Structure formats: structure tokens, C-alpha cells
Amino acid sequence: MKNEKMEFPKGFLWGGATAANQLEGGFHEGNKGLNIADVLPGGKERLKLLQSPGFNFEMDTEKYSYPNHEAIDFYHRYKEDIAFFAEMGFKVYRMSIAWTRIFPNGTELEPNEDGLAFYDRVFDELHKYGIEPVVTMSHYEMPVNLVKEYGGWRSREVVTYFERYAKVILNRYKNKVKYWLTFNEINSGLEMPIMGLGFAIQKEEDKYQPTFQAFHHQFVASSLAVKACHEIIPEAKIGCMILYIPTYSFDCNPENVLYAQQEARFFNTFCADVQVKGKYPSFIQRYFREHSIKLEMKPGDLELIKSYTVDFISFSYYMSRTEMKDKPSGDTVEGNILGGVKNPFLKASDWGWEIDPIGLRITLNEFYDRYQKPLFVVENGLGAKDKVEEDGSINDDYRIEYIREHIIQMREAIEDGVELMGYTPWGCIDLVSASTGEMSKRYGFIYVDKNDDGSGTLERKRKKSFNWYKDVIASNGSEI
């Protein structure tokens, strides 16, 4: 195979990625407050709620289960899990801080010391093994109180509360964290405002105005976080985080090509343009006119956004998307995050996500050509149903193949001239799925004995992919 022995650049950041709400558990311990994930039920009902108007952010424990409450109990088992990460040779560990561990309601004047101390312990344990944390400030973990009192990111008030939170964690961990991300998959708010923007759409005709107003508030908050990071930790790097889905035209019909281009630009680059280039892109102005969107801005907002852009671009990559202007019935791909039509050249995962390694190379080149800033793949992986054999082994060759093919395409992109900082596959240890609340949708190199019904011992086991990824890291990507 071409370039099979080519190593990645020296200092490449190999690791894995998780989110606090999907693995920590301990949802009421340490004076933690309720966040959005805490009130989302498990199973297929979660996806229905995320896609339907009117969710009220209330729990109904008689009707639903809430797997995020215990998750995989990283809150008590973090030393064990970090030891596994170290055994694989992680250089970095991408994680998030639960906002409600630091400010339980989001509005307090003083932070919660129990929450701050917990992350001190986690960071210290990581540094014991030479693992650098890559910390997401907000990963679908907004305080429910801010949702109920202010309507989430609809309200300008939330900017003040987020800035307070960001400054507290930047000051507290300035000697422990070198890499920061602001909002996880910020553009996902276009499709899942409940998780990303902290509110549920009430009616379809109400969707556009509150969504883009909320984005503006997040852009301001992101710039304030960048400003604070540069002032408090000048040597640190802070990036944005985008859900990137390259979009292909189904054929060479110019109408389909144009439609695919417009869809890709709208979803993939709008939020990135503002955070990386420091200005609203020209193409969004027509969209605003056609949907009668008028943003409320304070004096100085645009100057702030222009002055404090991110240092690098991180993103998740799971699939591509194939589009045509007029979709025939029966040919849509319901499993993909954004749907689209079936791509006859691609296979799909157990959950219907189309698998497209070359799409990652396309993504890296598109991003780098557009922005000319360092890139970081902070999510990528295969959600699958793993089987524990009678001897206790988990032979996840399908996961090895998936990640291997994506690593090959990252190497090709580096040869293309892309500046790539690192790679942290998603769910390096099995955790609760964000979209469905399931444990059976497993991504990890480490198996966790927990089932969708909540049963299980929480015992950790190495999958076959564990030692394979360990060898990948040890060889800096030359042995795959």
C-alpha cells in the first residue's frame, strides 16, 4: 500500500475523546446541578424528543430511564480509566467540563469548589501519565436552570454567565490545560437546538429567528472565551469545534450540484467562518433576507468577533452526505445525521451512518484550503454492537478496519499539505450515546459492562482494537 510506513509528523497528538455528560455519572454528587443531558431519556424516545417541538426539559422517571445519571461512572472510576488510556499511549485526552459542576444553576456568583476540585484530580491523574487534556468548555451540558429561566442561548444574559464560567475554569486550570475548545459541534444547533442551543423549537415557523439569534450569542461568548484564554494563558491554544459532513451532488446535474454546494456551505462553514474568519459570511446575508431574520446585536459585537478568532479548528467526522434538489421517496438515508439520498458506493454502520474514509481526506482539504489554520480531528469512530465471546474477548475487527481506513486518509491529507495537529477517536471507552441514550451503540477500545436497561457490572475490558490502537500510537501511525 502506498506510504504504508509513513509516520505522522513528530509531536502528533494521538488520543481519544469523550464528553462529561456521557461518561461521568454522579449526576447529583459534588453539588452538581442538572444539565440538559440529565433530563434527556434513554432509548429511541430521545431522538424523537430531539426532533420534535415543545420539549419541556422535565424528567419523568416513571415513564423513562435516564442513563446519563450513572453513565459509566467515570466520576468514581477515572483513575482506572485514565490508566487504560495511558496503557494505550495517549498523548492527549479530549474531555469536557460539566458546566453544572462548576456553576450548578449557571447563575451563581461563586463557583462550586467540589466541582473544581474534581477536575483538578482528573487533570493531575492525566499529567501523572504525561497525557495532556484537551478540554471542551460546553459539550451539550448547559444548566437546565438557564434553559428554564432564560430560554437558553436565545437570551443575551447567558453570554454573561458563560463568560464567568469560562474565566473561572481558565484561571483555575491555567497550569494544567494547554488546549481548549469552546462549543462542541456548534453548528449542530441547526438540527438539534435542544442540545446545542438550550431550547426547543415550538413551531416550525419560529425556527429560524431564535436559532440564529442564539448562534450570535454563542459567537460573542466564544470570542469572549478566546479573549480570556489569550489573556489568562498566553501559551495555550483555543479552538472551535464543528460537526463537518462533506456533501456530494448525487450526479452532475447543475441544479443538484448547486443544491449540494449550498447545503454544505450553510451547514459546514457558516459557524466556522464566524469563529475562524471573524465575520459573518456573505452567503448568509441572502438567507437572512429570505427568512426575514434580523439579529439583535450590541455595539462592539462584530468588532469583538473580528478581534478574537480561534487558534485552530477542531471537528468531528463520521460520514458524508449525498444530496439532490428533489429527493425521490424511498431513496433517503434516515440513519445519517442530515439524511440525504443513498450513496451507492458506500456501506453503512449498524445505525445506518454511511462509512466514507475518503470523505475525511476531502474534509481536511476543504477545511484547510478555506481557512489555512491548524486542524484537529477530535471525533471519529464507529458505533457498533460488540459481542463478548465465551472467553471474554471482544473481536472488533470492523472497528479496526474503520479507524485504519480513516487514519490512511489523514496521512494522505497531510501529504496534500494539510496541517493536522492530532486525532482523538470518539468514545475511546464505551459511553452513553448522545443521540439515543443507548449503551449498545459502542465506540470504545475499552468495553464497559453495561446494558441499555441499566444492568451490568461496569467492569472494563480491553477489546481487540485496544492493542491495535496502542501499536498505532507507539509507531506514530506507521504501523496500522
TrEMBL record:
Coiled coil: none annotated. Keywords: Glycosidase, Hydrolase. Gene3D superfamilies: Glycosidases. PROSITE patterns: GLYCOSYL_HYDROL_F1_1, GLYCOSYL_HYDROL_F1_2. Its EC number is 3.2.1.-. The active site is at 379 (nucleophile). This is Glycoside hydrolase family 1 protein. It comes from Halalkalibacter alkalisediminis.
